[in-house]
Amino acid sequence: MENVCSINNLVACLVQSGVNRDLANLLTSLGAAVLVATVPLITVIFLIWIERKVAARVQDRLGPNRVGPFGLLQSVADAVKMITKEDITPTGADKFIYNLAPIIAFASVILIWAVIPFTPLHIGADLSIGILYFVAVASIGTIKIMIAGWSSNNKYALLGAFRTIAQLLSYEVPLVLALLIPVMISGSMSMQEITRQQGQMWFFFMAPVAAIMFFIANLAETGRAPFDLLEAESEIIAGYNIEYSGFKWGMFMASEFTHAFTACLLTAVVFLGGWWGPGVEQIPVLGIVYIGLKTGVVYLFALVLRSTVPRVRIDQLMMLNWKWLVPISVANVILTAFLLQVIKALGLTPQSGDFVAALPQTIILLVGNLVLGIVVFGYIGRAGRAQRAADQAVQIHIDHDDHAPITAVGD
Length: 411
Description:
Distance between the termini: 92 Å
Shape: globular
Strand content: under 5%
Number of domains: 1
Number of strands: 0
């Protein structure tokens, strides 16, 4: 698109202003490298402080309040301490792969930011396959966990990696199926185009089931509570990164915090309108404020869940995915595709970008989602009652055996 500010047309603008093309390429590359190297790292330091403060408030604690004003420098002090710690490589480890895993961990998250539209004019690369790019790059994180656990020469790290791979691969299925819904509604895989089409109505109101599935799957993909089995200390010590220390361990932690924030950012882009808001067409920079506020709301909700909900077992985690999320996501895709065809046949597809034009399509899709939700919750209720009846029958049998008279063997 002509009005999108990307790396390619930024070079062209510099060349048109009289700058040598090689120098323009060098300047834009250096600028992009500085942004990628500094902004996410600074964001991570601030996010750690926010997570500690939110967890403290939810759990009736104080949180960081000594180092710097309001404890803001506590994360900086922890980062300095972490960098100065001894870097240990286990005996027998595959050193090249072992040292490469933390780099892949952080890079796989940072690369996602390239296709996130922050304003109508500012995006790293407006790819026509932005959604597919996100799915592909996010899958790289699975590789870093596998090679980190395998190269550490530690049985606990390897077991933790196997379990984590099972979790991540499983939850990619409902995540991708949930992303199909906004792609079908918008008719595009470009994140910028998906955001633009939400100027008339957020996709959350058209597809709340898909938004919920996407949020839950992202919690599992990022290893956040209640799905934080990537580091189940009580079961496998510390998981796949048990042998890492110092700065390399810090890169794993930085990738985790950045990934959690990026997942909330993507939720805001795909389902909550992204940079859309009052006055953004006149002042495009306001898009950064709107997308930041929406991301903050989703992120705060994820933090409250992390601070309140206990960790689930691995069997419960896999059962939730394959018995519930995947079937619901498949049914949602089929239902949405059918309703979109009905909307098209009735001539109710919105032709303009205003709220009124999108209202009929929104109502039809929302009603379909509500019906699906009622069916799912009805099934859950019946299953819960059946399980409760079975548990009561077992308990009655146990109580009867406990009160049965004891007779001698000869009797």
